[in-house]
Amino acid sequence: MIRDPLPGRARKPRSVGLTMVIDKGLGLGPTRALLELAGEYIDFIKLGFGTAALYPERILREKVALIRGCGVEPYPGGTFLEAALLQGRLEAFLAATWDLGFRAVEVSEGTIDLDHRDRERAIRAARNMGFTVITEVGKKDGSQELDPAAALSRIEADLAAGAAKVIVEGRESGKGVGLYDREGRLKLGLLERLVAGLPDPGAIIWEAPLKAQQEELIARFGVNVNLGNVPPEEVIALEALRCGLRGDTLRLAIEGARPAAR
After folding, report:
1. More confident of the two residues 171 and 74
2. Which residues of 42-60 are buried (b: 16+ CB within 10 A; e: fewer)?
3. Which pTM does this prediction carry?
4. How much is the average pLDDT of 235-258?
5. Which residues form a coiled coil (predicted)?
6. Domain assignment of residue 210, given as a range
7. Separation CA 151–CA 46 (nearest Å)
8. What is the CATH number for 155?
C-alpha cells in the first residue's frame, strides 16, 4: 500500500487528531456497522442533544456498552445536562448517566446561562465521579456572536477545573453559529483572534460538520486537528481528508513537496 500523502496522522490511543461523531438516533445495527467500518477513526460518539433520554433503557445500555467495547467513548449531548441543571438535578443526572455505562459527559450552556461558579461546580462534580469531562463554549442562537475574549476566559477556566477538551460550538448544521457565517464559511478573523489567545490549540475540538470546514481546519492546524459533530456517514471521508487521500487535501501534500520559488 502507498504511504499517506499527508503524513503524521496520530493513531489510537491518541490525545490529538480526535474525531467526535454526532449520533442523532442510530439503532444498534447501524451503530455496530459504523464501528466495524470506522471505529479506528472515531474517538467520541455524542448522542446528540437530549436523545439519550428517548432510548429504551435496554437498548441504550447495550449501545453504550457496544461503543465502549470498540474503544470509542460515548457521551450524552450537553443539552441533556442543561435540562438537568435547569431542574436542579445535576447529581441525579450524573449518577444515572454513570449507571447507564457512560464514562464521559458534556458540560455546556448552549441554551441556558450558567454562572461561572455553577459551571465550575458541574465540571468538578462530574470529574469527582470519574467522568471524562468535555465542555463547550458558544451559544446555539446564531444571533449571539461568539466573543473571543469571553470564550478564551471560559476555556481557561474549564481546563483549570478539569475539562479534558473544550468544544467550540458549531451545531450539527455548521451554519450561522459560532465560527461560521450563514453559508457555513469560517469567520477567519474570529478564528485567528481566538487561536491567538489559546495556550494549547490541541485542547480544542472544533465542531465542523461540513467538508469545506474540515478541509480548511486541516489546512490551518494540520492532520491532527480535533474535529467534532461529524456525521456518521462522513467519518471515512474525513479520514481521507486527514491523510491527503482526497483531492481537496492531496493538493496540500503536492504544495508541500514543491521546491520554494526562487
Report:
1. 74
2. bbbbbbbbbbbeebeeeeb
3. 0.95
4. 90
5. none
6. 19-252
7. 22
8. 3.20.20.70
Tell me which residue has cell 442510530. Answer: 26
Q: Is residue 12 part of a domain?
A: no
Work out the average pLDDT over 167-195. Answer: 92
Asked if residue 186 is part of any domain, the answer here is yes
Does residue 258 lie within any of the structural domains? Answer: no
8 Å CB contact between 107 and 78: yes
Q: Count the domains in the chain.
A: 1
Q: Provide the pLDDT for residue 51.
A: 96
Give a yes or no: residue 4 inside a domain. no
Tell which residue, 65, 20, 61, 16, has the closest CA to residue 38: 20
Let me know: does 196 contact 2? Beta carbons within 8 Å: no
Q: Which residue has the cell 443539552?
A: 79
CB 43 within 8 A of CB 71: no
